[in-house]
Amino acid sequence: MEIDFNNLHHAYLVVGQREEAEKALHASFEARGFLLKGSPDFFLWRGDLFGIEEARDLSEKAVRSSFTVRKVFFIAPGRITHEAQNALLKTFEEPVQETNFFLVARDEASVLPTLLSRMRVINLESRAGEGSDAEKFLSASLKARLDLARRMAEQEESLPDFLDRLLKVLHSRKASLQSLERVHAVRIVSETRGAAARLILEHLALVL
Question: pLDDT of 68-95, one tens digit each?
Fold first, then answer.
């Protein structure tokens, strides 16, 4: 995990497996002389669902006085609700000094663009060439995009996986918040039963 301790950001999204992210966090801080294990200012949350109550509890703990020089929050849920993410917006945007948040997610697409815009991303699962089809889709003409949408639907490629790659490419291109929100909205729909891949892709071909 690459953390710039000379320019430590207040909030990070760590993309990867929870266990790997936790080990990497401890190793990074220990290399700088900060022992998180056993610290009264290290807050660890693991669980299946991080909801609005958990978000409020975290926000309350974040403003309490610290015992040491730094407070670190490590949140590693199986899933985090949209309501919880919205509740964390102000906490992540206006943190108490010397307080850092690390939220673990399986991909950037599971995090609302508004919350993600307040975080730096650390990707533990980078894979070469994973954005090639997304890059091709974004760079193509409208006609070519519609052809790609038809072919992808016919070949029954995984729509959620493609949308995850599309979001990563848009983030790397520093795309507008509106574009990110459009893709994120259909990413949520893509996992529902009966989601029409071709219609979703054709819609994106027109609006991106």
Answer: 989 999 999 988 999 999 999 989 888 7
Does pTM surpass 0.85?
no
- Using alpha carbons, select from 80, 83, 132, 129 the residue that is nearest to residue 101: 80
CA distances from 153 to 100, 130, 197 (A): 42, 19, 6
- What CATH number is given to the structural domain containing 22? 3.40.50.300
Domain span at residue 179 reads 132-207
Same domain? 24 vs 91: yes
Nearest-angstrom CA–CA distance, 112 and 180: 9
Distance of CA 121 to the CA centre of its chain: 7
Q: pLDDT by residue (tens digit) across 130-147?
A: 557 888 899 888 988 998
Question: Could you identify the residue written with the tokens 């590693």?
Answer: 76
Q: Which of 96, 123, 150 is the last residue of a domain?
A: 123
- Number of structural domains, the chain? 2
